[in-house]
Specification:
Number of helices: 8
Structural class: mainly alpha
Radius of gyration: 19 Å
Strand order of the largest sheet: 1-4-5
Helix content: 55-70%
């Protein structure tokens, strides 16, 4: 029942350049997201070519928000003393809470320039592929032997050979599985209601369920922030609470309007 995991995180070497599996899966998340959003656009009578201008906004907002959140929340002492290190995205370090906020801000800014189909519509529809993208990113974390689970304390678990000989909870895969179930839930709701889906319902369900799963699974993770060792409530759990509250409010508002 013990799985020994040893994997080369580099997918391809091209001279001095290296293509990492994390980058491949991260890019795949956006490619699939664009295709799924295009299907939503066509299904509801919008021009899917508008996505050519939307996706750069979504990508920049997600990466910028995730990077700044990782640097300034999870290890502020290091990055404030080495501010240029914030720009070294290729070294790793993206925080999902910041990515969610960065994406929402990017969609809002985009909607100010392109009023149709609107910020609320985009926020709901982008929640559909976002859950799938989150699952792909957590699989990438597993390939990289990062965001580790706590030792199982038994004769089962995953031994990450690049880290230590302890069998650990494969919490990255737990989280990926949870996000796949959430993606299935969101698509079921959307296919049932289509254009009549109450505004804010999909985005609210996404925020509520994704960050509830994140808060629950944080109990199985090793400390992620440089300063949180010994905390009763992890930094990830604290950050999940306001996003869960926002999701709950959006669901309540959507149901009330419906």
């Amino acid at each position: 029942m013990i799985w020994h995991w040893q994997f080369d995180p580099i997918a391809l070497h091209v001279g001095p350049l290296q293509l990492h599996w994390y980058g491949v899966l991260f890019a795949l998340a956006f490619v699939l997201g664009q295709q799924l959003l295009a299907w939503c656009y066509r299904r509801e009578g919008y021009d899917s070519q508008a996505l050519d201008s939307l996706m750069p906004w979504a990508l920049i907002g997600t990466v910028l928000g995730a990077r700044l959140a990782h640097c300034l929340i999870y290890d502020p002492a290091y990055y404030l003393s080495q501010p240029l290190a914030i720009l070294r995205v290729w070294e790793g370090g993206l925080a999902s809470h910041g990515g969610a906020l960065g994406l929402m801000l990017a969609l809002w800014l985009y909607s100010r320039r392109h009023p149709q189909p609107g910020f609320a519509w985009l926020l709901d529809r982008i929640a559909l592929p976002a859950a799938l993208g989150g699952a792909l990113v957590r699989c990438a974390n597993f390939l990289n032997s990062e965001i580790l689970g706590r030792p199982t304390g038994g004769d089962w678990g995953v031994v990450f050979a690049a880290i230590d000989p302890l069998p650990r909870h494969p919490v990255q895969l737990y989280e990926a599985g949870a996000y796949l179930l959430i993606a299935a839930l969101l698509w079921t709701v959307y296919r049932r209601h289509g254009r009549a889906t109450p505004s804010g319902l999909l985005a609210g369900l996404f925020l509520l369920t994704v960050f509830a799963a994140r808060a629950l699974l944080e109990t199985l993770k090793t400390p992620q922030a440089a300063y949180e060792s010994g905390f009763a409530v992890s930094v990830g759990q604290w950050l999940s609470l306001p996003l869960m509250a926002l999701g709950l409010w959006l669901v309540w508002r959507a149901k009330r309007r419906a």
